[in-house]
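Input structure tokens:
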């Protein structure tokens, strides 16, 4: 899945790279992915050279993405 931020495409390959760079943020045996997801979203905004939202907005992105039924998974 590609994302578009400020007219710049954040492609699947870049998201896979962010996943690999930040998966250490997922605590072993935990299902709390918030810190990991916030870091991935932050990386996406930085890649698009867009202003990174504040922490409250990042939390909303993480929560709403989860409530929408999306599951962050990498399929190769």
């Amino acid at each position: 899945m590609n994302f578009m931020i400020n007219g710049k495409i954040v492609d699947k390959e870049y998201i896979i790279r962010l996943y690999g760079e930040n998966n250490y943020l997922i605590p072993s045996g935990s299902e709390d992915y918030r810190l990991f997801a916030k870091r991935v979203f932050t990386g996406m905004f930085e890649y698009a050279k867009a202003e990174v939202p504040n922490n409250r907005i990042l939390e909303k992105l993480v929560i709403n993405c989860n409530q929408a039924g999306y599951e962050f998974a990498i399929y190769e």
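Residues 56 and 62 are 10 Å apart (CA to CA). The chain is about 50% helix and 10% strand.
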